[in-house]
Write a sequence for this structure.
């Protein structure tokens, strides 16, 4: 699954690129990603509509139309929303092509079949996706004080990495950002949430906020084995700033120890045994 910085990068790109544009035509090349709607209905209800804005509900990208309906894109692990011109070649992974009256096209591409597109009314989004009500804090959209974060930590009886990657506690953090946050805070993945001192809580809170906002600033992270690109087809640059992920057996940039890679509770985990305590 893409993590929060990648989805937020796509949302911000789309807001700049397509907000205010009117849809001229819609071409559905593959119905596989369409969820709960037929090809005919999707085309008829999106064609002619104007994009009012682009939002995000957790890891869902929501495109609001002036008809009162919302196109919901779940990018999964391989979905892409790409700006293009009509003259650009269309590859076989492209499922939907939206052409605007001005400003080219937006193409929905999914090489691995993990993504989906829905069309709902704004009012029914919580009904169609009831899981949204069960999700926790969105650290990009919802400001949180370090004291409130500390209360959240102490309410749990978990180890730190399971705490960070639990979407009912914090939205959109997977293995990559959890490992980077813990490294920046100098904390091991298997520390208990209730064992942290006040100073350690402050460090973890600061690391969480800074890592996620920096990742968004740099356009997310594209690792060697994934397909994340922004709306312009560019890879995420935060990969160049990773401190432990993908650096097993290399020297730690903080203490010159050796970065380790292990499996913890079924998750690949990177950390420095020398300076994470």
């Amino acid at each position: 699954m893409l993590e929060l910085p990648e989805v937020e990068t796509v949302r911000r790109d789309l807001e700049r690129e397509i907000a205010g544009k009117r849809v001229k035509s819609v071409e559905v090349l593959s119905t596989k990603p369409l969820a709960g709607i037929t090809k005919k209905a999707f085309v008829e209800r999106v064609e002619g509509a104007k994009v009012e804005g682009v939002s995000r509900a957790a890891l869902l990208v929501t495109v609001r139309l002036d008809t009162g309906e919302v196109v919901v894109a779940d990018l999964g692990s391989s979905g892409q929303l790409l700006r293009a011109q009509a003259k650009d070649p269309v590859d076989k992974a492209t499922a939907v092509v939206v052409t605007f009256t001005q400003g080219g096209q937006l193409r929905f591409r999914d090489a691995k079949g993990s993504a989906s597109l829905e069309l709902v009314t704004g009012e029914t989004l919580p009904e169609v996706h009831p899981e949204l009500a069960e999700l926790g804090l969105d650290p990009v959209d919802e400001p949180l004080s370090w004291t409130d974060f500390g209360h959240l930590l102490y309410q749990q009886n978990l180890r730190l990495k399971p705490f960070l990657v639990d979407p009912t506690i914090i939205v959109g953090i997977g293995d990559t950002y959890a490992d980077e946050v813990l490294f920046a805070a100098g904390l091991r993945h298997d520390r208990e949430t209730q064992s942290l001192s006040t100073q350690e809580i402050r460090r973890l809170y600061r690391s969480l906020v800074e890592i996620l906002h920096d990742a968004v600033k740099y356009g997310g992270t594209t690792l060697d084995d994934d397909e994340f690109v922004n709306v312009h087809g560019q890879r995420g640059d935060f990969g160049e700033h990773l401190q432990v992920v993908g650096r097993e057996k290399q020297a730690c940039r903080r203490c010159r120890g050796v970065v380790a890679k292990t499996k913890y509770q079924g998750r690949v985990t990177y950390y420095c045994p020398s300076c994470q305590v």
The helical segments are 4-18, 39-46, 125-128, 146-154, 160-165, 175-185, 198-217. DSSP finds seven helices and ten strands in the chain.
